[in-house]
Amino acid sequence: xxxxxxxxxxxxxxxxxxxxxxxxxxxxxxxxxxxxxxxxxxxxxxxxxxxxxxxxxxxxxxxxxxxxxxxxxxxxxxxxxxxxxxxxxxxxxxxxxxxxxxxxxxxxxxxxxxxxxxxxxxxxxxxxxxxxxxxxxxxxxxxxxxxxxxxxxxxxxxxxxxxxxxxxxxxxxxxxxxxxxxxxxxxxxxxxxxxxxxxxxxxxxxxxxxxxxxxxxxxxxxxxxxxxxxxxxxxxxxxxxxxxxxxxxxxxxxxxxxxxxxxxxxxxxxxxxxxxxxxxxxxxxxxxxxxxxxxxxxxxxxxxxxxxxxxxxxxxxxxxxxxxxxxxxxxxxxxxxxxxxxxxxxxxxxxxxxxxxxxxxxxxxxxxxxxxxxxxxxxxxxxxxxxxxxxxxxxxxxxxxxxxxxxxxxxxxxxxxxxxxxxxxxxxxxxxxxxxxxxxxxxxxxxxxxxxxxxxxxxxxxxxxxxxxxxxxxxxxxxxxxxxxxxxxxxxxxxxxxxxxxxxxxxxxxxxxxxxxxxxxxxxxxxxxxxxxxxxxxxxxxxxxxxxxxxxxxxxxxxxxxxxxxxxxxxxxxxxxxxxxxxxxxxxxxxxxxxxxxxxxxxxxxxxxxxxxxxxxxxxxxxxxxxxxxxxxxxxxxxxxxxxxxxxxxxxxxxxxxxxxxxxxxxxxxxxxxxxxxxxxxxxxxxxxxxxxxxxxxxxxxxxxxxxxxxxxxxxxxxxxxxxxxxxxxxxxxxxxxxxxxxxxxxxxxxxxxxxxxxxxxxxxxxxxxxxxxxxxxxxxxxxxxxxxxxxxxxx
Amino acid sequence: xxxxxxxxxxxxxxxxxxxxxxxxxxxxxxxxxxxxxxxxxxxxxxxxxxxxxxxxxxxxxxxxxxxxxxxxxxxxxxxxxxxxxxxxxxxxxxxxxxxxxxxxxxxxxxxxxxxxxxxxxxxxxxxxxxxxxxxxxxxxxxxx
Lengths: 796, 144
Fold this sequence. Notes:
- The complex is a heterodimer of chains A (796) and B (144).
- Chain A has 796 residues and is of the alpha+beta class.
- Among the domains of chain A are: 409-475 and 643-796, Aldehyde Oxidoreductase, domain 4 (2-Layer Sandwich); 491-637, Aldehyde oxidase/xanthine dehydrogenase, molybdopterin binding domain (Aldehyde Oxidoreductase, domain 4), CATH 3.30.365.10.
- In chain B, 42% of the residues lie in helices and 7% in strands.
- The longest helix of chain B is centred in the C-terminal third of the chain and has 24 residues, at 120-143.
- In chain B, 56% of the residues are buried.
- The interface between A and B is large, with 60 and 57 residues.
């Protein structure tokens, strides 16, 4: 099950790169401290910004007095809403589902703050220390208002109201489904009900957010460095909000220290740095501290779900009814309305043939940091909904949970599968049963199950579980996105430029945040052009160099960006072949190309090299009639379908009943993400996703108190897994090539994060089944598990 | 002024990173004389007159240390933000425990957070480096 890394592929030679565990070309600079992150950038005359943030969860601003701060040594200036009103637009979300109401959101609070940490004023000074000191000298007079942080409480009559245009704090009600759930419920033998909490998480990329902006007065151009997962969209949003022409806005995303979704949204500090750089005529840099990040950067998840399954006594699940209440925070972040609705509810039937779904999601605003896409972005919630429900069904019917899953899985001959009769969604391909069997075999399900009672007799509480997930990845397609409320396209760009010496640069609109795109894209292009990878450079994250793009999210870089690169490389090869044919004085179909040389088929001595062809493309003295000079192609690849990745994950855990501590004894994931471009990097993505998923299951959870203070306000209080809190995981792949993209790839970036939470919770509940425990809400921290055991024993 | 601020802002050595404000993450780990320290827990003035080694000074970029090489070969880094700190923390272990167990490696890295890798490949890289280092030590012994 382990990827062999001994067989390293030489990037300086011709090889078949796709499918090989090629070592990363990104590593060298990171290993020697030569990475370049936004906070590393130093510009002449640099100033530093710090943000005055609301210390209340909800308050009216009576006054802001910056007079002391503006006279302090080194302070360049202070911005408040009074400076921005009429000059800078609102922060607009980019995905608004259904009839969701968009409350006004200003970059700096306008008269009222609605969450702890909401920006109130922006200070610019000559040093970082001076800026931080000046923040302390700005007097904001607040009149505290009643606070509501819980989404269900916010819907109650008499709850504090956040926005004038959002009555009852209800942003919108979204329904989704198909089939006839009422009929399913009527014909069911039983209705099985569960309530689930998918707790609020803090994404925590190791590099906090940062922005560095400067304005070139002579050229009248704004340059902004920031770790954006979506450089071209960030540029567009900034230009629109600032009212600044896009052709004079240059956005550079340098190295990004992890993103996990939270670096693809649109934040006040980005607007403020850009505005301040022009306003004060000095470069401005802002970097959030970790604790500041916990208030200022979007959170994830935060749903409560009520699920009802209509089932037959033989275990057949006829339908799912979902009523969920999602906490969107104080304002609509970029994709906030889409995550709990389309990205979650669509997956409420998971990997199963369940003919009906009746889902209704209420979207609620509360006095908390805005909630948006975080790795998995709705699919972890969806998988958790159906998998916890399947366990409840198994429990209610007395069927082994593995057997129940086997009976309900979509069969291989049912693909392409249309879930619950939905008009648009298609699960493209797979073999779920084979995957489930592989996971069961690898974990030794039968063995653990048979040993369980014996272990219990010894006082050991060991549980075993297997759960399933599937997710649509590779976000497109532009018209469908529009239909679902997006204000963005679904294609990705690849510009492939062959230089006159035959070396190649790929300009990609996607954006690595540590994924290793420079390696995997070079593998793809290297294979098509049959050139050593060393001849191919990959450029991302510079809107002046990369012509267009969307970025990296929704596990889309290989299926969409990779398909773009593949298509562009094939166009290059087609044109190069025509040029070679002209040079060899034959027709293009009489030319053979291999490992950097074109020759007349059957006469290998009559050859021209790829480099000679590239040179001819620019010298242009012997091009086919009508052909334009140059060897440079741009492709905006529009996917035809979103591929469906899936996997079956298995875990064995042991619970210490005296301390509540959970120990993972074994973990197996078998995933089908289509063809693997680079198995080594795929394995790395899975490891990282699993760590975040296990983090959600066992450790993580952001907590507010009733006054709107963030109790988990720093890394002291918010736990994400450390090296000794994560088990060794065993990852394996089965491959069903995606049928509708040229590489046959699906996506992997988020899979581990989707898969892990339900299987860990399921295994822990299995371990505690003798206490009558069927469910504990995440995170399963020792105190929580201990209390559940104590309460169960009391009941007895 | 903290040592990490001095390194990044005065000395221009930006290979040492800041990932938190509570001394949890270890991204700023460096070597101070013989000791391995989080440079956010040391004042710059305390380092006056002492030898500080950062990731930039650990090795000639053209000739990586066994640990750096092992990180590359085992895909032990993704975004690279925690990597410098990880390298110093792991090297400190290998200096004292040349042939550690997996549990010892996991314990030794407890003070260094990574959000990308799930640690498994980092642990494997440290175990590989232990082997590489022993081979190298043996070569040195044989040569002398």
